């Protein structure tokens, strides 16, 4: 490298460096800050949009799932339609966890109708309504009774003629021959919107048996949008594809009633000009719109629900929100740039560090634990050849070490992921019976311990049932072990069909022995379910026209009673033994 006079090193490089670096710092920072401000606005919109999207999906999913579950139940077990009071109890239990679920209903092809109903504005007030109890085709409201399901008539509720086959939900489902969405409409007598989902029920011959439906109040979505903390001047809306509003972040009405005619509020004629302009864009994604001199960043996204329903999310935030960030950072850049000029001028007076500075820098990089600090060293650090050679050698060594470490990290990550998957598979296999898909003995022991602790902490009742297939050895001896396996699978399906999926426990306890745990259920309800299980065996042969029976040993733990798992199993085993020795095919409590 060509040497230069010391005074040139003092005057020329630092003057040029001060001017060029200061100008570059200011220009680069201005562009970068503008880009950051824009990204902040877009990131804010994406975060809000994600929260709304997740909320809508979480809100609608139970509503759709209940309709699907009921349709499957009635399709595969049409005899349920002959016992509508029991169906009313089923609907009542389904609706309890959901404050927004207003109706769960079924209408038969002969015009009978029953539902579990809840006020769309006062969640938690569940009742039963039916048109066949008081008088045929006369709708009346009834209290819920945990034993008979349809309790005393609610005298305060008016009665009226009601044939569900003439209602829109019934006709829509029958005409479409599939699960069908209803229109979003206000509830009669309540200041909120709702929507229903109905499904036709057919038997195996294609004969129409009726229609099951669910209805949900949308007031919770409107409250959710209004509760979100937004930047000043921002707007949110949830709308149908035709622009009719479902919910907004504002306080405006979602529909108007004039002379008995109901009109939904629409983006196209909304009093908010921003909403009107948003309705003119059918394009999804991010875009800019101007409203009365104010620029907005507008984002639109569709929410695809099942069975062909689609809603739109709209988010508008003013550009002034981003401009505030830009102004604040611009002032900071000016101050930093001035300080940079001062610092560079000061460095000029320290030219004596010309030799010591690069050496010191190399030393610090070598002592540090960060390879990147070495890799970022410039190729030419000084006019001294040896210093440059040392710098290049360190950088090359750091590059090699970085490659080695990256390869090691990739291999460790790959191996860790593989082991984690294997562990999860082994855990699932260890807790599940391979043949029936139920808990095995180990999985059951873990589940019942948790259930006992939970029921005792919550002061809830618990019922433990130990049951055994009668004369199972005869099935294996006469038909072979493959048929015996089919019998075990059939028993498992029957048991699972008559328990509550969310709270009860079903397990293959060992061989032909099974265990059931009913949480927070009256003993009468448990016995009713056990008798239904017995009827299921009587009605449906397991294989080759052969029916099986089971014996049941039942232990009921009352509220507040404390018992160990070992004592519970021991008592149930004794009662099962008693059932076996007193004739089989019976329940011993």
TrEMBL record:
Keyword terms of this UniProt record: Cell membrane, Membrane, Transmembrane, Transmembrane helix
SMART domains: GGDEF (SM00267)
Membrane-topology annotation of the record: Multi-pass membrane protein
EC number, UniProt record: 2.7.7.65
PANTHER family: DIGUANYLATE CYCLASE DGCM-RELATED, REGULATORY COMPONENTS OF SENSORY TRANSDUCTION SYSTEM
TM annotation in the entry: 6-28, 333-355
Catalytic reaction equation(s): 2 GTP = 3',3'-c-di-GMP + 2 diphosphate
Name of the protein described by the UniProt record: diguanylate cyclase
GO molecular function: diguanylate cyclase activity
């Amino acid at each position: 490298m060509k040497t230069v006079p010391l005074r040139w090193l003092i005057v020329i490089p630092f003057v040029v460096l001060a001017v060029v670096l200061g100008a570059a710092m200011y220009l680069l920072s201005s562009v970068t800050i503008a880009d950051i401000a824009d990204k902040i606005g877009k990131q804010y919109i994406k975060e809000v949009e994600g929260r709304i999207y997740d909320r809508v999906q979480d809100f609608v999913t139970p509503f759709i799932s209940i309709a699907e579950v009921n349709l499957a139940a009635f399709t595969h077990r049409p005899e349920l339609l002959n016992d509508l009071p029991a169906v009313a109890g089923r609907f009542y239990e389904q609706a309890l966890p959901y404050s927004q679920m207003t109706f769960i209903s079924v209408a038969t092809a002969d015009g009978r109708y029953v539902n579990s109903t809840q006020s769309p504005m006062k969640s938690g007030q569940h009742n039963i309504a039916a048109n066949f109890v008081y008088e045929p085709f006369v709708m009346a409201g009834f209290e819920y009774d945990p034993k008979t399901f349809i309790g005393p008539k609610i005298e305060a509720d008016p009665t009226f003629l009601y044939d569900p086959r003439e209602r829109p939900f019934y006709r829509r489902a029958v005409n479409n021959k599939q699960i069908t969405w209803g229109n979003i409409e206000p509830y009669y007598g309540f200041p909120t919107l709702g929507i229903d989902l109905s499904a036709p029920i057919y038997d195996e011959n294609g004969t129409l048996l009726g229609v099951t439906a669910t209805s949900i109040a949308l007031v919770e979505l409107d409250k959710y949008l209004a509760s979100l903390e937004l930047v000043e001047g921002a707007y949110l809306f949830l709308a149908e594809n035709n622009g009719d509003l479902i919910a907004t972040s504002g306080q405006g009405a979602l529909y108007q009633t004039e002379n008995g005619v109901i009109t939904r509020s629409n983006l196209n004629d909304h009093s908010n000009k921003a909403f009107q302009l948003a309705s003119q864009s059918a394009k999804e994604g991010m875009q800019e719109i101007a409203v009365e001199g104010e620029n907005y960043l507008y984002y639109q996204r569709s929410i695809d629900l099942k069975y062909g329903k689609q809603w739109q999310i709209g988010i508008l935030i003013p550009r002034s929100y981003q401009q505030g960030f830009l102004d604040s950072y611009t002032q900071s850049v000016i101050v930093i740039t001035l300080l940079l000029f001062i610092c560079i001028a000061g460095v000029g007076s320290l030219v004596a560090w010309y030799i010591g500075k690069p050496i010191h820098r190399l030393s610090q990089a070598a002592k540090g634990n960060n390879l990147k600090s070495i890799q970022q060293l410039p190729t030419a650090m000084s006019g001294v050849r040896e210093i440059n050679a040392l710098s290049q050698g360190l950088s090359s060594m750091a590059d090699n070490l970085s490659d080695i470490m990256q390869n090691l990290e990739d291999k460790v990550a790959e191996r860790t992921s593989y082991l984690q998957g294997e562990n999860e598979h082994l855990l699932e296999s260890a807790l599940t019976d391979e043949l029936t898909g139920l808990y095995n003995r180990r999985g059951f022991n873990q589940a019942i311990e948790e259930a006992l602790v939970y029921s005792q902490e919550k002061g809830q009742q618990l019922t433990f049932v130990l049951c055994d297939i009668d004369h199972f050895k005869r099935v294996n001896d006469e038909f072979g072990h493959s048929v015996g396996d089919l019998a075990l699978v059939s028993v498992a399906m029957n048991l699972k069909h008559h328990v509550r999926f969310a709270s009860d426990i079903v397990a293959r306890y060992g061989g032909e022995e099974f265990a059931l745990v009913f949480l927070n259920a009256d003993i009468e309800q448990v016995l009713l379910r056990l008798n239904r299980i017995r009827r299921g065996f009587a009605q449906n042969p397991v294989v080759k026209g052969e029916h099986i029976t089971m014996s049941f040993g039942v232990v009921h733990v009352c509220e507040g009673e404390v018992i160990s798992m070992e004592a519970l199993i021991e008592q149930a085993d004794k009662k099962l033994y008693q059932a076996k020795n007193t004739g089989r095919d019976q329940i011993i409590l």
